[in-house]
Amino acid sequence: MANSARSACALAVPFLLRIGADPRTHFRADILVLAAEIGRQTTGPGLCTREELLRVAYDDDEWVIEPSGYPGHWSIQAAREAITADADLVIELLADSDPQVRSAAAYTAVVALGRTADIKDALSVRMNVEKDPAVRAGLVFASAQLAREHGDADGEVWTRLIWSDPAASPEMRVSAALGWMCLTDAPIPDSLRIVLDQCATDATGKLMGSLPWMRAVDYRGDPGLQICVRMMLSPEAHDLA
Fold first, then answer.
1. What does the pLDDT look like over 50-74, one tens digit per residue?
2. Is 102 exposed, middle or buried (0-12, 13-18, 19+ CB in 10 A)?
């Protein structure tokens, strides 16, 4: 129902967050991602472009009508406000013992409409201590997404510093490179293309495959990372698809 009847699903968000936070619950990461998806625009394989990969929701002046006739953008806003109200709960999960829950928490936190400074600080603090390489890549995605959503110009500079740093790990450089492309419409420099050639390998794609951002565009058996790289570097491929 979350793809078309968010007006009903938005009411479930506070409950989903609490279920996902309960260590006795199964599929906690999936439950958190579901809560986040209710507050996002519909995802799918077409949303792997520079304009869409890190978009959280529709623009304020864009109306979306659910099949029932209810304004879908109101439902998205309601779900995002529910996540904002429980931001402390979600932020706490960034330190959960399960790495998939930590990634899901980052994916969920950036959907919030408010508490932006608190969420930005929490992501930064977690990134400084995070040991799991996939989670680190997810934290970069989340930080770039937060910057895109709230117009933080520092995000473009910060992501460029990471992807241009040869000492950074491949997954960090790749996620920062994709984040940078989503934060600016500037032409893609050759230096970034070289980074992607070197770092966006099958191994990196497999490592990042469990991240919600990659799962959202993963289809037909192709790794989400390779799909994003292909579509962003060659927009005409998106048109053909």
1. 888 888 877 766 787 777 788 878 8
2. buried
**Per residue in 198-240, pLDDT tens?**
999 999 999 998 999 998 887 666 788 888 888 888 866 555 4
- Residues 143, 120 contacting (CB under 8 angstroms): yes
**Whole-number CA gyration radius for the chain:** 17
Q: Which residues on neighbouring strands pair with residue 219, listed in sequence order?
A: 222
Q: How many CB atoms within 10 Å of residue 124?
A: 12
- The predicted model scores a pTM of 0.91
Using a 10 angstrom Cβ sphere, with 0-12 exposed, 13-18 middle and 19 or more buried, the burial of residue 23 is exposed
Contact indicator for 140, 213 with CB cutoff of 8 Å: no
What contacts 97, CB < 8 A, 6 or more positions away?
none
The full DSSP string for 63-106 is --B-TTS-BHHHHHHHHHHHHHHTHHHHHHGGG-SSHHHHHHHH
Q: Where are the alpha helices (DSSP H) in 53-201?
A: 72-85, 87-92, 99-109, 116-129, 133-149, 154-163, 170-183, 190-199
Residue 139: CB partners within 8 Å, gap ≥ 6?
A: 106, 123, 126, 127, 130
